[in-house]
């Protein structure tokens, strides 16, 4: 399978521990490198940020913690024919078996559409591509299983720190598609691996983020060793419509009008991303000014052009959530450039379109001031 390039170089991530949540006491780590992938011993579970990797604090997911990762034992019901049944009874039993099988299949299809294996690696936003190198047998088995089942998707969750100092998985993540999976070109020779020791053969994996989701129920451990959860996929347009319709049912007319205008304010604020700005050099828009400065700070030639190609066109003004997510993916690319504060977790846990737009706007402005030297990030 051909490898999807990101810029002129491929940034790899690697695992040293199990790259899946196995129990409440186990976690795994990864490392981001600007050159070839390497096998690392221990790194921070947080994605790289411009302020030294210190995450922002969020409290929106306090009810979701690792102690929910419990064992999963699916129940199986079956029936057998009793001795001495008549032919008519056997026919009825066959019909019941057929209907039961059909219902089971329909339930399986429904479960497959709303259940995802979970990985906790890095907070990702729609349109982003993450390239990793995996070696752990369980994670490789998961990837192979999903591809063989013609459902090459996983659930990607990031980590965040609560105000109490506790680190927990985010309850909101993104569905990622396996777009590339092949033997790593820099894996150790086959004679270095054995059943009693040595390193596992590495695989190069590329994951592309798509739909957002939120955990919708318990997180269960499968017999194969990975974890799965029922999820609810999120649609930006539906969220904004729900926000407006819910506001119209508010307890008072004043509060109702205020909430209904929230989406309208988000759309109005969205214009600031692409409208000419007199405070920017050459009256460029905020997005264009960021791109101009980022090209002066890119780690290798063509990095920003490749990033823009990956993200596609910025969504229109009347899609405030999608536009905010696009800006977040722009200023917090994979791999990190270290020129902006980490805003991806905040974008994912924000409840309203206006909040998401404000997070993206603040992050974009602070990144511009950092790069032009007017106000450096700490």
SSE arrangement, N to C: EEEHEEHEEEEEEHHHHHHH
Q: What is the strand tally?
A: 11
The largest β sheet comes out as: 5 strands, mixed, barrel
Which runs of at least 5 residues are low in confidence (pLDDT < 50)? 1-86, 189-198, 253-257
Please report the number of helical segments.
Answer: 9
Strand order of the largest sheet: 4-6-9-10-11
Q: Which class do the helix and strand fractions yield? A: alpha+beta
Estimate what percentage of residues fall within beta strands. Answer: 15-25%
Question: What percent of residues adopt helix (DSSP H or I)?
Answer: 25-40%
Rg result: 24 Å
Which secondary structure elements does this structure contain, and how are they paired or packed?
Elements: E1 13-15, E2 30-32, E3 69-71, H1 87-114, E4 115-120, E5 129-134, H2 137-148, E6 153-157, E7 159-161, E8 167-169, E9 172-183, E10 203-221, E11 227-234, H3 236-247, H4 253-274, H5 286-297, H6 303-311, H7 320-331, H8 344-349, H9 353-372
Parallel strand pairs: 3-10, 4-6
Antiparallel strand pairs: 1-2, 4-11, 5-10, 6-9, 7-8, 9-10, 10-11
């Amino acid at each position: 399978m051909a490898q999807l390039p990101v810029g002129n170089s491929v940034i790899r991530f690697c695992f040293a521990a199990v790259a899946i949540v196995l129990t409440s006491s186990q976690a795994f780590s990864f490392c981001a490198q600007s050159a070839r992938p390497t096998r690392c011993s221990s790194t921070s579970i947080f994605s790289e940020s411009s302020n030294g990797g210190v995450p922002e604090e969020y409290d929106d997911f306090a009810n979701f913690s690792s102690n929910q990762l419990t064992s999963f034992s699916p129940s199986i019901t079956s029936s057998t024919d009793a001795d001495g049944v008549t032919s008519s009874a056997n026919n009825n039993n066959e019909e019941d078996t057929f209907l039961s099988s059909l219902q089971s299949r329909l339930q399986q299809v429904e479960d497959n559409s709303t259940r995802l294996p979970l990985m906790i690696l890095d907070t990702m936003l729609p349109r982003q591509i993450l390239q990793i190198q995996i070696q752990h047998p369980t994670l490789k088995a998961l990837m192979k299983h999903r591809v063989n089942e013609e459902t090459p998707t996983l659930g990607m969750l990031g980590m965040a720190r609560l105000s109490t100092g506790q680190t927990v998985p985010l309850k909101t993540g993104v569905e990622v598609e396996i777009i590339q999976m092949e033997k790593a070109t820099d894996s150790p020779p086959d004679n270095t691996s054995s059943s009693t020791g040595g390193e596992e053969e590495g695989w190069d994996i590329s994951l592309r983020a798509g739909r957002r989701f939120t955990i919708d129920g318990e997180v269960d451990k499968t017999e194969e060793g990975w974890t799965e959860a029922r999820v609810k996929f999120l649609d930006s347009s539906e969220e904004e419509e729900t926000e407006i319709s819910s506001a119209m049912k508010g307890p008072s007319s004043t509060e109702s009008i205020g909430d209904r205008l929230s989406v309208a304010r988000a759309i109005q604020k969205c214009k600031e991303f692409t409208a000419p700005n007199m405070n920017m050099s050459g009256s460029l828009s905020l997005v264009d000014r960021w791109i101009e400065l980022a090209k002066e700070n890119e780690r290798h030639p063509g990095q920003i052009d490749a990033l823009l190609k990956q993200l596609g066109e910025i969504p229109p003004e009347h899609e405030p959530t999608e536009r905010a997510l696009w800006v977040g993916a722009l200023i917090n690319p994979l791999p990190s450039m270290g020129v902006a504060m980490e805003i991806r977790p905040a974008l994912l846990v924000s409840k309203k379109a206006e909040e998401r737009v404000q997070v993206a706007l603040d992050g974009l402005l602070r990144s511009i001031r950092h790069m032009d030297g007017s106000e450096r990030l700490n």
